[in-house]
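User: Hi! Is it possible to get a structure for several chains at once, not just one? Here's what I have:
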Amino acid sequence: MAENVFEFTDQNFESEVLQSGSPVLVDFWAEWCGPCKVIGPVVEDIANDYKDQVKVGKLNVDHNQQTAMKYGIRSIPSLLVFKDGSVYNQIVGSVPRERITKLLEEAL
Amino acid sequence: MNRKVIIIGSGPAGLTAATYTARANLKPIVFEGMQPGGQLTITTDVENYPGFPEGIMGPELMDRFRAQAQRFGAECVMKQVTKVDFSERPYQVWVGDTLYTGEAVIISTGASAKTMGLDSEMELMGYGVSACATCDGFFYRDKKVLVVGGGDSAMEEATFLTKFASEVWLVHRRDEFRASKIMAKKALENPKIHVHWNSVIDRILGTRETGVTGAILKDTKNGSTREEICDGIFLAIGHRPNTDLFKEYIDLDSKGYIQTLEGRSLTNIPGVFACGDAQDHIYRQAITAAGSGCMAAIDAERFLESHD
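Assistant: Yes, the chains can be modeled jointly so their relative placement is included. Here is the combined structure:
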């Protein structure tokens, strides 16, 4: 996985995401999802640009169903921004880069 | 930024046009749009693309199309064209505030899944309403879902969804399917698939917090309504060409498909060519899209030769 992109799991979600001091962008994805492959590189790119302000990572819904279910994920890719332990805002589907950065700017 | 060839769209048609124009040394730029790789990126196994006897996954096939175009110097950019002006050459193509000009333009913007046009549907898209069973079926393990439509893609989605869902109900406005016999038979013989005949969805129930919780179905014969509880609704009611951007300049048919000269890729504007699903409402296959992309590339090359 690219530098600056974390891998979130059911096990580390509490410590890495919910207890994070900075906002966290979580990309819910899976291997079999075409649109996820499209947005993946965009998220990696954003991770580099925002590395000092935001934590960015991916969560594979196949392997981490508990977390996906907890946040009511029904469609992927789903991008959720967490701030202070809860969902701050979210976006579903493959969207242009500007819409994702706007999401982050709002949370900062 | 003046280019010899600008290609708008990156499905099998656009990327084939890119490979051909790149090999002809026309240095094409491809604006990939919102769904780089096109509709095949939301499919799973492609079993009928020639040259892949074991089948290939849709997204992988499109990665290969792109790699092939790039090998000959096509520039593929993950950007969405927002405006065009075809009133004079070189033609103008905008991406936001950035202007590109092209001596020739190839339109390969494809088609998108149609929606029903309900407010509740837009509100809940991604929250229980989906146009992509292969993307979202996974989240409906042991749940009950509706599939709207009566064509081949509705049968395919319904059959696919039985891998996860406990019950799949097709919702169809008539009392028989438009799907091919073999697809309809396969769906109807599946014990998990049931049908609401003569029915349309009038309203979808639920909120973004709860997700979809049900739908109000309306009987197309007598107009009566009934409530149906479900966890998800999948749309398979056909496709609509992505041609709104061009309608001011390019002749479209009544359904919005670009009109091309019979057997060619020429549009009403010299130097603007169209290929793939944006101009094909009949075949709509990866292989026919690729074939028409090749035609557009050769037509563009000849046009440029005779005009430079």
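Residues 9 and 63 of chain A are 8 Å apart (CA to CA). Chain A has one domain: 5-107.

User: Great, thank you!
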